[in-house]
Amino acid sequence: KVSRNGLRIGDLESDVFSERYEKARARHIKTVEIYDKRYEEIQIEGVSFLEYEQAWMEALSVLKQLKKVNSEYFLNNALSDGKKILAEGAQGTLLDIDFGSYPFVTSSNTTTAGVCNGLGIAPSKVGKVFGIFKAYCTRVGSGPFPTELFDADGEELRKIGREFGATTGRPRRCGWLDLPALKYAIMLNGVTELIMMKADVLSGFDDIKVATTYSYNGELSEEIPYDESSTEVEVIYTSKKGWHQNIEGVSTYSQLPDELHEYVQYIEDAVGVPIRIVSVGPDRSQTINK
Predict the structure, then answer these.
(1) What pLDDT, on a 0 to 100 scale, did the predictor assign at position 278?
(2) Residue 12 to residue 239: CA distance in whole angstroms
(3) Domains of the chain by range and CATH?
């Protein structure tokens, strides 16, 4: 898309689709040849590019039979008709290409702005914005992680929370909740309501720490420093009393332990946004409306 060379779904309906496809194909072949490779000889797990291409062309013949719409008109017309649209992001705010912990980011906008760009919906038409966060912090791969735990507590979070990559099985990095990072995400996304996941994972800890501020160059700040990975960044924590009750079978908010109520209230007061839902397990029935 950025190179202005991509093929789009609408091109399937164009009389010059074949011409555009061949131009794109020629560019890719030229790129492969730069690395002294021959297109027709390259294989992935024993399957050649030519075979993949043939399968792709067969899939296109099916795709051409499907009804297509101009999605920006389709969605905006639905909004005008009073219908509701739910858009869900797949990656966290701090992986945003523009506002994340660059260069340890993905290649797209993962904030609410990305929804507007991706769907062709004006910012003024966005209603509620739900911010989904874990009761603690995790990160996959490299990048700054001020509240990361390297002790038994971190290992306990990883084990109980089953924090391992779904595809690779790689252990996720775990740490305490980072309020400055949460506030930053709320600010960028215009979050109106919060949903706290994995509260059950914190069951069993005597004390639960929460990062409240950073100390950087001798100054205290609630803003994320430009260079989070600097060794001069120190995290200031507050401690909240934990609970030992197994809450996985709890079905109403009032049944949750007082310590969890206090933890939720503390976060709400700190960020200025209500937590509407608390999850106490992976099943849908374990999602509790507050």
Answers:
(1) 98
(2) 58
(3) 9-63 (no CATH), 128-289 (3.90.170.10)
